[in-house]
Design brief:
There is one protein chain. The chain has one helix at 166-170; strands at 2-6, 9-10, 49-52, 63-68, 73-80, 82-83, 87-88, 97-100, 111-116, 119-120, 123-124, 138-143, 148-160, 177-188, 192-203. The protein is mostly beta strands and 207 residues long. The protein starts with a strand and ends with a strand. Residues 1-11 and 16-48 have low confidence and may be disordered.
Length: 207
Amino acid sequence: MLAVLALLVVTGCGAQTPDAGAPAATEATASATPSVAASAQAAPRPIPVPQLQPVNVPAARKPTRVLIPAIKVDAGLELLGIGAGRTIDVPKDPALAGWLQAGPAPGDPGPAVLAGHVDSKDGPAVFYRLSELKAGEIITVKRGDGTAVAFHVDSVEQFSKTAFPTARVYGPTPVPSLRLITCAGTYDKASGYRDNIVVFASRVAAR
């Protein structure tokens, strides 16, 4: 599934640059659930992402919505690509998540990736509570043909953006898998959020 690794960057997990007077998060206030005051977009830290083999996903299997009842998420999905400057696009709307369409679709073999903002200058965004998910909780992704694919959470982990586990997030998996990604940790205006929250999930076996 993976070709040669290429260094790309995610442009940020906060939807908009905060107001000039908004305080940045500090080590004393940072936690797995980021501060609403710390919306990031300026000079984000790079996250290595592999160059994925092109995937031709029919419209019927493209994801359209993600539902996470445990944290009250019911959101539409934008299609995310690789933008100018070798950056991974992020959702334009902080209320929406996005599917990285360079990789598998949710329910297909391999790890499908959904990314979303943690906050904006107006308050919490779609993945603000992502760090609260627990192992065993259910994530459902609806597809273009009206069908739905369910995943159970395997783990929720926080990583420094300087030590992002690229191979683990994007590498081959024995079952159809899902990755949800947002920002976390300390925020500063020069470099954005320090960390990422990654949810690792596996497809629920059909009964």
